[in-house]
Design a protein that fits this description.
Pfam families: HSP20
Helix content: 10-25%
Distance between the termini: 83 Å
Protein name: Hsp20 family protein
Number of domains: 1
Largest sheet: 4 strands, antiparallel
Radius of gyration: 20 Å
Number of helices: 1
InterPro entries: A-crystallin/Hsp20_dom, HSP20-like_chaperone
Strand order of the largest sheet: 1-2-7-6
CATH topology: Immunoglobulin-like
CATH architecture: Sandwich
Order of helices and strands: HEEEEEEE
Number of strands: 7
CATH class: Mainly Beta
Shape: elongated
Strand content: 35-45%
């Protein structure tokens, strides 16, 4: 048995298999890792073969949805979901400061913690 040494060919074939699996009703399950850091939580999603333009990250209340769609160049209206995954975020996170960064084959969602401890509030005059 001969081994195929052309990495670009293997990547294209793997991507084609993923797309045909998705069109046939399956979905890609990306590798997901959650890191709890001192000042933030980082959600890392490994996305080999998926372009940044295909990705969408949606925040609705405390539900974070990470998804990717396959766009057909011949039929732009037709889209097939590559993956769709939801995460329930805990209340101690600052949802207004979320950053989404794409680096190489990885999508990172940075969610900082809310400030801890007592906070002095301003008193308004009527």
């Amino acid at each position: 048995m001969k081994l195929i040494k052309d990495k670009k060919f293997l990547q294209n074939v793997a991507h084609y298999i993923d797309v045909t699996n998705t069109v046939g009703g399956g979905v890609i399950q990306p590798q997901v890792r959650l890191q709890k850091r001192q000042k933030e939580v980082v959600l890392q999603v490994l996305l080999p073969g998926v372009e940044t333009e295909q990705c969408q990250v949606v925040l609705d209340k405390n539900q974070l949805t990470v998804m990717a769609l396959h766009h057909n160049q011949d039929y732009p209206v037709m889209q097939a979901p590559l993956f769709h995954q939801q995460f329930a975020l805990p209340p101690q996170l600052d949802y207004g400061q979320i950053r989404v960064v794409r680096k190489d084959r990885e999508l990172r969602v940075h969610v900082p913690y809310l400030p801890q401890g007592p906070r002095l509030l301003d008193i308004e005059q009527w």
